[in-house]
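Structure in, sequence out. Go:
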């Protein structure tokens, strides 16, 4: 689809709140949704706290992966190989990988958090579509905006923070198809909110009125009445028409 959907954790939001909601968005269908959070931007001094809170939230949702009917599998072996290749590539290029479970089961892939990631890693170039979550530290919120804006525009963006001014700032200084504030995925679940991308993540919207307009072709129709005022502009053109044209258009 194009851009990778980011989540921004602010300085003021309780980490447990943000981590739990990000965990829901990332673990639903094992991360195999087009609007799953692809990476998280976290203040540098809150990085360890976020990783711990995220790990705890995931394990509350899924105490075990083995024979767990609540957790689904990666759709096929090819995609599982792709995700494992992301992990191997990231490890070879210096990433720290935290695997949240000792083992998965068949294609039930364990959740992983990736730290110390860089742009040359495959996991930071492609849409992940799986249970891998890179976490990127930032110093100032402006650095988070810059990080997002230097990359292809995402389908979704998630901001966690209760400062109204900063919420407005995020909306004004980033571009994405849609935004959920203090949650993940939920903007796409509103049937009366337009859902769609921008640029690399797609164009146009559906849901509600916007969906009707997107999938309809507007037909322009002009109907003339019996009185034909247009005769005033029919040829032959005399001096009066020339003077009118000069007056209207040759100022």
């Amino acid at each position: 689809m194009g851009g990778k959907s980011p989540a921004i954790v602010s300085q003021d939001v309780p980490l447990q709140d943000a981590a739990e909601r990000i965990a829901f968005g990332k673990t639903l269908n094992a991360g195999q949704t087009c609007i799953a959070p692809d990476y998280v931007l976290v203040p540098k001094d809150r990085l360890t706290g976020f990783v711990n809170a995220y790990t705890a939230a995931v394990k509350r949702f899924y105490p075990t992966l083995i024979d767990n009917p609540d957790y689904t599998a990666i759709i096929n072996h090819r995609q599982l190989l792709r995700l494992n290749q992301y992990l191997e590539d990231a490890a070879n290029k210096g990433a720290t990988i935290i695997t949240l479970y000792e083992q998965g089961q068949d294609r039930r892939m364990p959740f992983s958090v990736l730290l110390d990631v860089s742009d040359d890693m495959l996991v930071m170039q492609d849409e992940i579509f799986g249970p891998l979550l890179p976490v990127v530290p930032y110093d100032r919120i402006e650095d988070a905006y810059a990080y997002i804006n230097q990359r292809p525009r995402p389908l979704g963006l998630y901001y966690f923070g209760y400062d109204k001014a900063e919420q407005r700032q995020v909306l004004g200084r980033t571009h994405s198809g849609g935004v959920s504030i203090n949650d993940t995925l939920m903007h796409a679940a509103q049937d009366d909110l337009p859902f769609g991308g921008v640029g690399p993540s797609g164009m146009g919207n559906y849901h509600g009125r916007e969906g009707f307009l997107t999938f309809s072709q507007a037909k322009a129709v002009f109907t003339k009445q019996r009185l034909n005022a247009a005769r005033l502009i029919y040829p032959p053109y005399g001096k009066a028409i020339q003077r009118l044209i000069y007056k209207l258009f040759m100022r």
